[in-house]
Design a protein that fits this description.
Blueprint: H1 2-24, H2 31-52, H3 66-72, H4 78-91, H5 95-108, H6 112-119, H7 125-137, H8 143-152, H9 157-170, H10 176-186, H11 189-197, H12 205-211, H13 217-227, H14 237-247, H15 258-270, H16 287-299, H17 303-316, E1 321-325, E2 345-349, H18 353-358, E3 364-368, H19 373-388
Antiparallel strand pairs: 1-2, 1-3
Coiled coil: 1-45
Keywords: Coiled coil
């Protein structure tokens, strides 16, 4: 043991002597110089990054929440918005507006605890909204307070936004159509969202008219193109992921994107490639997770597990039906995660997913349901980044 210690000391001593010799010859820099250089590089990178980041296209008087930010500049990145809010803070004299901008900044930067102190005694609807949103993102149980918030401000859209986002996070969509129906009576924009969610949008004219108001413009254009099965490459990652399904291409998945990660996983299975299940675990409350694993276990002939996940899915969403389609690959139920299938559909049936599938052993299947994705898109990439990505936007 002592011999080993002596050998180690000799090696370390030799290493130090070699480093001193190399420093003298100018081959390497000493540690303090290296550290100083590293600090300078980091500072330079920060300066360059700040120059690259553009400002979001926002009006200070209309910037009340992340939702309002999305309505004005849907494509803006979190860093763009943060830069703009800091500029608002510098130019704003009103204590109330400064508090509001600071609260939104805290949410975007993940400083939820700070808002508990900053907003706790505020009673105005928009302050209350941002206060409860911060606590919800902080994984606190606020459902009772949200329900009371709805009762206190039944004519405001903000309490319902909280309710929708709470159920998005918890993976419970059984009352989504009722909530969206109520919001549609408060705000005409939500008539469109309600009709898209319930698959009842027939006249895209009302969507085109809504575009003229310049709120959620990119999202509304997506809805129009969705009806005509068109695609487009936008600045919005979320919209591009949804457009990719029309083309059957696999989007590059960001770690917090539900649709992209399940598209990648399903494509991997179909092409007999491995996929990382650990990347899907963060989405276990979503309907996509339960539907995916229902088919995953069914394809692996684990019927009890398949039944368990299908039932969890059926209990969390609305209006489930199964379309029976031509079987073109050996794995069933997987294509729907990365491709919109519009041809070779034989019929549509309602009932328990597994029971319908068992009646058609030689076919493939698409499970239709009221997909909450349109509501996720309201809250945009910022929602998924905060909820599933640990604020790593």
């Amino acid at each position: 043991m002592n011999n080993n210690d002596d050998k180690l000391k000799n090696i370390l001593k030799l290493k130090e002597e070699l480093e001193k010799d190399l420093i003298k010859k100018g081959k390497i820099k000493n540690k303090s110089e290296q550290k100083s250089r590293k600090v300078q590089d980091l500072e330079q990178m920060k300066i360059i990054k700040e120059k690259i980041i553009k400002e979001a296209n926002l009006a200070a008087d209309k910037t009340l929440s992340i939702f309002d930010i999305n309505s004005q500049d849907y494509d803006s990145s979190v860093m763009d918005v943060i830069k703009t809010l800091r500029k608002f803070l510098i130019n704003e004299n009103s204590p109330e507006k400064r508090t509001l901008f600071l609260a939104i900044l805290n949410i975007l930067e993940g400083n939820f605890e700070k808002n508990k102190t900053l907003l706790e005694n505020q009673t105005d609807v928009i302050f209350k909204y941002n206060y409860l949103l911060s606590r919800m993102y902080n994984r606190e149980d606020v459902i009772k307070e949200i329900i009371q918030f709805v009762k206190n401000f039944p004519d405001s859209i903000y309490p319902y936004l909280l309710l929708l986002e709470y159920y998005l996070i918890e993976g419970n969509f059984s009352n989504f159509s009722k909530i969206l129906s109520l919001t549609s009576k408060i705000n005409n924009f939500f008539k469109i969202i309600y009709q898209v969610y319930t698959n009842t949008l027939e006249d895209v004219g009302i969507v085109k008219n809504a575009v003229l108001h310049k709120k959620f413009t990119e999202l509304l254009l997506y809805i129009i193109k969705q009806k005509s099965l068109e695609t487009e490459n936008t600045k919005s990652y979320c919209l591009n992921v949804n457009y990719s399904k029309k083309e059957g291409t696999i989007p590059n998945p960001k770690e917090y994107c539900i649709k992209a990660n399940f598209a990648q996983a399903a494509w991997s299975i179909v092409n007999n490639r491995k996929f990382d299940e650990s990347k899907l675990k963060i989405f276990e409350k979503t309907p996509e997770y339960n539907l995916f694993y229902g088919f995953y276990y069914l394809n692996n002939h684990e019927l009890e597990n398949a039944k368990k996940y299908f039932e969890k899915f059926e209990n969390q969403v609305e209006n489930v039906s199964v379309k029976i389609i031509a079987k073109t690959i050996s794995y069933i139920g997987m294509r729907q995660f990365y491709q919109n299938i519009k041809s070779n559909i034989f019929k549509e049936e309602r009932g328990k997913i597994l029971e319908v599938i068992n009646n058609y052993p030689l076919h493939d299947f698409i499970v239709e349901y009221f997909d909450p994705e349109i509501v996720r898109l309201l809250f945009a990439e910022k929602h998924c980044c905060i909820v599933y990505g640990g604020n790593k936007c």
